[in-house]
Write a structure and sequence with these properties.
Helices cover 30% and strands 24% of the residues. With 381 residues, it is an alpha/beta fold. It is elongated, with a radius of gyration of 22 Å.
Length: 381
């Protein structure tokens, strides 16, 4: 029987590594921030997709979570989480699946930005003998999803959900996804204030019309970290703050030393004339996200660090990827003597969500190269 690897150097590669000490610090910092502000923190698990991470994220602070798929909702519900927000506009075809969760005792909240969908939710809830709690999504500038805050559509959807009897208007939800396009903390703070003000204005419109608005949910990791005011907000959702990544580091939402997740890879070739080595982590292991391309430091497809997880190799990054090959180059001559074929390195990801999605488990370390746990992930839909 094969012995379970106890050190990173013993793992097959590529593999996903999670530093528990960094994860814990990141979680605690956000928890402390919102406890001090008196605002409910609802950790978004779309990045982590892990029960073990979720338990750390909610420990001692409220307990509700957000997810991005109903499969995640089912997974977390099966592991004891009862307050779950499905933070993607629901398709009517998924209402039966949602109803099954509610009938197990899960307080599942849905969102919509469509009047016909709202009508379908109300009707299907009545047919299935459940009441769907629903938030209306409001656009605050990203123009991805959500209705304009001053629109008649907002009020029509709200009235439809409130009329029920298979639905209940729970409030509104706002997501400033365009905060990721900001390049200064001042700009992020401005977007955060627009996000907050939009949510507060939507709640005001509903209440003025005699409609309930118990929840005003806002959030993204940049705005959650750098917003100045939260009056009118009842909860903040964010997720990538737990792990951090190179993009978050580039926009000032974390430091590179806070990045908790990385990809363990092996050197599989040297190209000394080109000042290049090849690793066995390519597009499928790292993702093709190039989110740092338009930041002050273009870090290619990820920064390459040594086995300890420090920046001990210098300014070295993955400059190109094929399906299973990563091409690593440096701004100065590479330390080829430290990078022989077979050597292990770690790659800090541009986008923790997409990189982590390639794996079914985390190999957990705690500030060293010793593997202290293996935590499963919930992937798929």
């Amino acid at each position: 029987m094969t012995e379970t690897p106890r050190r990173l150097a013993d793992l097959p590669t590529p593999a996903l590594v999670l530093d528990r000490a960094r994860l814990s610090r990141n979680i605690q910092a956000m928890t402390d921030r919102y406890r001090a502000l008196g605002v409910r923190l609802r950790p978004h698990l779309k990045t982590a997709k892990s029960v073990d991470v979720a338990r750390m994220a909610v420990d001692g602070h409220f307990g509700g979570i957000a997810v991005s798929t109903l499969k995640e909702a089912e997974h977390f519900a099966a592991n004891g989480f009862r307050d779950i927000l499905y933070a993607v506009c629901v398709s009517p075809a998924k209402l039966d699946q949602a109803a099954r969760l509610i009938k197990t005792g899960v307080a599942l909240t849905l969102i919509t930005d469509d009047l016909d969908a709202a009508k379908a939710i109300a009707a299907r809830g009545k047919e299935l003998s459940v009441v769907f709690d629903v938030l209306v999504e409001i656009d605050c500038g990203e123009k991805r999803s959500g209705v304009p805050v001053e629109s008649d559509t907002l009020m029509a959807i709200a009235r439809t959900l409130h009329a029920g009897p298979g639905s209940r208007l729970a409030g509104i939800l706002v997501h400033a996804g365009h905060s990721y396009a900001c390049r200064t903390l001042e700009a992020v703070a401005e977007v955060a204030e627009i996000e907050r003000a939009t949510g507060a204005r939507a709640a005001e419109r509903l209440k003025t019309a005699g409609l309930p608005c118990g929840t005003v949910s806002v959030g993204s990791t940049p705005t959650a970290l750098h917003g100045k005011r939260y009056d009118g907000v009842t909860e903040v959702r964010c997720g990538v703050y737990m792990f951090g990544d190179l993009f978050q580091s580039e926009i000032g939402s974390c430091g590179e030393g806070d990045i908790a997740v990385s990809v363990l890879s092996s050197v599989i070739g040297q190209r000394r004339p080109e000042n290049r080595v090849l690793i066995d982590a390519g597009a499928l292991a790292l993702s093709k996200d190039r989110s740092t391309a338009n930041t002050p430091h273009d870090l290619g497809f990820g920064r390459v660090v040594d086995l300890s997880g420090t920046t001990g190799l210098g300014a070295v990054s993955v400059v190109g990827v094929h399906q299973e090959h990563g091409m690593v180059e440096g701004r100065t001559p590479l330390p080829f003597d430290r990078l022989p074929v077979g050597a292990r390195v770690r790659v800090l990801p541009n986008h923790a969500c997409l990189t982590s999605a390639a794996y079914d488990r985390y190999h957990v370390v705690d500030g060293s190269d010793e593997i202290v746990a293996v935590w499963p992930r919930c992937n798929g839909w």
